[in-house]
Specification:
- It contains eight helices and twelve strands.
- By secondary structure, it is α+β, with helices and mostly antiparallel strands.
- Helix 2 runs antiparallel to helix 3 (111-122) and helix 7 packs across helix 8 (251-265).
- The protein is globular and about 45 Å long.
- The mean pLDDT is 92.
């Protein structure tokens, strides 16, 4: 979606891409999804409208989705093969290419906040599992019981996947935000519970910088969702930026080409991206993707279903 140079800030969010069918969702649930996406957009947009930085907007928007039981991140995260939730998240700032990521969390209410703390306070880029949670406690985070993240719907999904003897992406998986602030700064953030019935210790693309999350002020900010193994192999988030940087492609073209690469590998999913001019792209190759955007001077737009 092309924008003019006069529109200098905005953001896009996603709540996961996957097998989304109207007959399964129903009008009431679709309204609930769109309401949550709208609340996420409003939280992030308020930061940008007030002159705040893109990273602050990203974190504000993602926290809303992590706190909603509708999405596979934070409360409502997918349940793994051991019957517990393991959560991953990442953030990246386009101006400095600073990044922070966490994986394998079991007791952190908002993983996106810990990813930011890793970036700003640890001296590292990625921290995992018990070590990440020890760092969290040292920096003032409170731990929560793993049961906080689990919902009856996620447990049912896990039991179904277990009977089928496979791990599978949740129908409603992963959340993310990309933002452009008034100063031209870009940022991206992604948070997820991963795949339903996944092997213990499995990590997907969301916390891997360049695969599920990437931002560079010279090009764009990207957050991906879908079958993470394929986005890792395609280095998908960085691929969008690299095509813009080295081939001079528009955001829309670069995002579409990247999703085509993921599809050729056999992967399903989607991504959201925003460039330094405020252009937005939201391609996906599934039956739907929870998504929305709001740009300066415009209203919030949200959607769930869409053409494959």
């Amino acid at each position: 979606m092309r924008r003019s140079k006069g529109e200098r800030y905005g953001l896009a969010v996603h709540g996961g891409a996957g097998l989304l069918l109207r007959r399964d969702i129903g009008p009431a649930r679709e309204r609930a999804y769109r309401r949550a996406l709208g609340e996420s957009l409003e939280a992030g947009y308020a930061v940008l409208r007030g002159g705040g930085e893109a990273l602050d907007a990203v974190v504000a928007a993602v926290r809303v989705l992590e706190d909603s039981p509708l999405f596979n991140a934070g409360r409502g995260a997918a349940v793994n093969a051991d019957g517990i939730c393991e959560l991953d998240a990442a953030v990246m700032v386009g101006r400095t290419l600073a990044a922070g990521a966490v994986a394998g969390l079991q007791h952190i209410r908002n993983p996106i906040l810990l990813a930011r703390a890793v970036m700003e306070r640890s001296g590292h880029v990625m921290m995992f599992g018990a070590g990440a949670e020890r760092f969290a406690q040292e920096t003032g985070f409170e731990l929560v019981a793993n049961a906080y993240f689990q919902t009856p719907e996620r447990r049912r999904e896990m039991e179904t996947a277990r009977r089928l003897l496979r791990g599978e992406p949740s129908k409603w998986g992963t959340v993310g935000c990309v933002a452009l602030d008034r100063k031209g700064g870009l940022a991206a953030g992604t948070s997820t519970g991963g795949m339903t019935n996944k092997k213990f210790g499995r990590v997907g693309d969301s916390p891997i910088i360049g695969a599920g999350t990437y931002a560079d002020d010279a090009t764009c900010a990207v957050s991906a969702t879908g079958h993470g193994e394929y986005f890792i192999r395609a280095v998908a988030a960085r691929e969008v930026s690299a095509r813009m940087e080295h081939r001079g492609e528009t955001l829309e073209r670069a995002a579409a080409a990247t999703m085509a690469k993921v599809a050729r590998l056999g992967g399903n999913g989607g991504l959201i991206a925003i460039d330094r001019l405020g252009n937005v792209a939201l391609p996906f190759n599934t039956t739907g993707m929870h998504r929305g955007f709001r740009l300066s001077g415009g209203r919030a737009v949200t959607a769930v279903l869409g053409p494959r």
